[in-house]
Amino acid sequence: MMTDTDTAILALEDGTIYRGAAFGARGERDGEVVFNTSMTGYQEVLTDASYRGQIVAMTYPLIGNYGINGEDNESWRPWLAGFVVKELSRRVSNWRATTDVDSFLKKWNVPGIQGVDTRALTRHIRDAGAMNAVLSTEDLDEQSLVEKAKASPGLIGRDLVKEVTCDEPFEWTAGLKGGEPFRVVVPDCGVKYGILRQLVRFGCKPTVVPASATADEIRALEPDGVMLSNGPGDPAAVPYVVEMVRDLIEPAGGPPIPVFGICLGHQMLGQALGGVTYKLKFGHHGANHPVMDMATRKVAITVQNHGFCVDIESLPEDTAEITHMNLNDRTLEGIRCKDRPVFSVQFHPEASAGPHDAHYLFGEFVDLMKEHRAQA
Asked: Any catalytic annotation for residue 348?
């Protein structure tokens, strides 16, 4: 039997309670509870800055069996508020592992709970929608926790980008080879390292700058292209990023700079073109989401992590073309400007972890930069 020292409670704002065993750090955290359907890649989930402000439940029942290694992080630290699993593996078996999930979360002060019926939790979120919750190993009064969950600020209207962006510009040089790489500026809204790795793989040299950078500051770096990164929270709560994107894609003398947006970057571009965003019922989080390319009718299985979406009907037809569609719920997954070398996708073509079906989009970005160099 568990004692109060190893008991953890997950309390949802609608009064639903899940009791389990604590792992990771001890303490209390609030956030929006969401589920992720990936079977592998829990380390990438833990370190993805897009999960800032969220408590993540993994639908796959056994987590932690291959441990944590020093190569697969998507950021320099975990950003999620809490971690929920059915069973945390007691044994780590992988030659790359340097530590285990429990120790990793303890180090970064992230609480976890295991022994939860994550299937029941997932079905509840699917039916009722993502909602605010509190994960606690301290306050074990269920009603008290429910009231705290109701008082949680949630994601709508919160600027979480400012909490995860870098303080100073830096260059990503890991894996960089010789030659004359394409110079890509990446405004950091919470960029995954996997995106930077793919840019290098496709012959680019990324320079990451704070999300507060202006279009003029970005142009001053003389990039061949700009990558609009993923990130956490409500896309409507970061108007300064939208303003930067709007200024960036407007003609400023010479050929327009190629721009490629991913996830939050896609939502930023959608708003810059005049569209509006809205919150999905329970979001898309996982590595098995089918997306159709509207031009080729080919279907890619994609990695996704977003709780907001661009409203298709809000986009101006004279400037924006719909390129990709989600086959599960017919939501928008990709747009392209008709008169500029600018495009974006809602899913994650870099995967990390997940299927590699959409890697080709980095090649399309490089092709646009080749044309831009030729015109310069």
From this structure: yes
Assigned CATH topology for domain 161-375:
Rossmann fold (3.40.50)
**Chain CA centroid to CA 268, Å:** 14
Identical fold, 7-151 and 161-375: no
For the chain, give the percent of residues with pLDDT over 70: 98
Average pLDDT, the chain: 95
Dihedral of CA atoms 89, 91, 94, 98 in degrees, nearest 10, equals: 100
Residue indicated by tokens 């995967």 = 351
DSSP lists the bridge partners of residue 82 as 55
> What's the rounded mean pLDDT across residues 5-15?
93
User: Can 350 be counted among the known catalytic residues?
Assistant: yes
Helices marked H in the chain — which ranges? 42-46, 101-107, 118-128, 142-151, 161-164, 193-201, 215-219, 239-249, 264-272, 360-375
Give per-residue pLDDT as tens, 200-248: 999 999 999 999 999 999 999 999 999 999 999 999 999 999 999 999 9
Measure the N-to-C terminal CA separation of the chain; round to a whole number of Å: 70
Domain boundaries of the chain, sorted by first residue:
7-151, 161-375
Reduce the DSSP state of residue 119 to 3 states and report it: helix
Does the domain at 7-151 match CATH 3.50.30.20? Answer given as: yes
Of 284, 285, 348, 372, catalytic: 348
> Considering 263, 285, 289, 333, which one is annotated as catalytic?
263
DSSP assignment of 64-100:
-TT-B-SS--SSSS---SEEE-SEE-S----TT--B-
- Of 207, 172, 45, 50, the closest CA to residue 112 belongs to 45
Per-residue buried b or exposed e for 303-324, using 16+ beta carbons within 10 Å of the residue's own CB: bbbbbbbbeeebbeeebbeebb
- State whether residue 325 is helix, strand or coil: strand
Whether residue 353 is preceded by a cis peptide bond, meaning omega within 30 degrees of 0, is yes
Active-site pick, 13, 32, 333, 350: 350
pLDDT at 1 over 80: no
